[in-house]
UniProtKB/TrEMBL annotation:
Residues annotated as signal peptide: none
Highest taxon of source: Eukaryota
InterPro entries, sorted: DUF7730
Lineage per the UniProt record: Eukaryota, Fungi, Dikarya, Ascomycota, Pezizomycotina
Name by which UniProt lists this protein: DUF7730 domain-containing protein
Region Disordered: start-end pairs: 21-48
Domain called DUF7730: residue spans: 54-255
Length: 279
């Protein structure tokens, strides 16, 4: 657990405290490792994947497993899921309608409400369907993190095997300038979201065992950060090696559009495996 400095010394400290204070509570530890049980009590058997065959159910008893899995896949796959932060350190989700009118895709998020039942309705029908389908929810959808810090906040709130099953991630991170004086010109770019938080987020991404596609969208402010800072900013992602290059989307400001070739060349030189474009 990160140590919190006593007192506030800089803007970076304010963000670090905010980051720690807003972290959602993680899942409770498995009872098998409960301190109350100690070593003497034998661990309880894991019954999460056990169910009784429901002979009365035509769907479950008559359809072959292959057909059932195809149905679950059609219901649960192919979605874009916005992960959002709610009040009281809760995490939530909103299904992206992909219509162009999505408020979160356009940069907002406050007024949209998640519909918790919809995403999990099928999996929560019974234990058998849950066991057969829940993994698909994580492996067959794109998880989009628009709120800064959401990625590292989500991780402790879902079981590790679900986290490991995630294959597609889109991350939006603010890359604006700032008005705060700072002697360290490199560090200054982190003020919008916090350097520690950025590094932690990158570490979490590079350690995702199932990750196949990753898109980082850098959002800019009305003025531009020097392009030289981008490779430095992206350094923590150097260890991200995917089968295909991950995608870097820059703000569509003329300054960045004109510099794409130079940015791309610089990133390649540094061994950062991404495809650059401006959106
Ligand atoms: Zn959306």
């Amino acid at each position: 657990m990160a140590r919190i400095k006593q007192g506030v010394f800089s803007w970076e400290d304010v963000l670090a405290q905010q980051y720690q204070n807003n972290k959602p509570t993680g899942l409770p530890r498995s009872r098998r490792y409960s301190a109350l049980q100690g070593q003497r009590t034998p661990p309880k058997p894991d019954t999460r994947t056990e169910w009784t065959i429901q002979h009365q159910s035509a769907l479950l008893a008559r359809l072959s497993p292959e057909l059932r899995l195809m149905i679950w896949e059609m219901v649960l796959g192919g979605m874009r899921i916005h992960i959002v932060q709610r009040t009281n350190r809760r995490m939530g989700h909103i299904l992206c309608p992909r219509t162009g009118s999505c408020e979160i895709c356009r940069g907002g998020h406050r007024s949209m409400k998640d519909v918790p039942g919809r995403l999990l309705a099928l999996s929560m029908t019974c234990k058998q369907i849950y066991c057969e389908s829940i993994g698909m929810l994580y492996s067959l959808n794109t998880f989009e993190f628009s709120n800064t810090w959401s990625l590292t906040y989500l991780r402790p709130t879902i079981p590790g095997d679900f986290w490991d099953a995630i294959r597609a991630v889109e991350l939006r991170w603010a890359f604006p300038g700032h008005f705060l004086p700072c002697k360290d010109t490199v560090k200054s770019i982190y003020f919008s979201a916090g350097r520690q938080q950025w590094v932690e987020t990158c570490q979490a991404v590079t350690c995702m065992p199932g990750l196949q596609t990753f898109t980082l969208q850098l959002s800019g402010s009305w003025f531009c950060e020097p392009v030289e800072k981008i490779p430095v900013f992206l350094e923590p992602l150097r260890e991200l090696h995917l089968r295909q290059r991950w995608k870097l989307q820059l703000p569509q400001q003329p300054y960045y559009v004109e510099e794409i070739r130079n940015i791309d060349g610089d990133l390649r030189k540094r061994g950062i495996e991404c495809l650059v474009r401006a959106v």
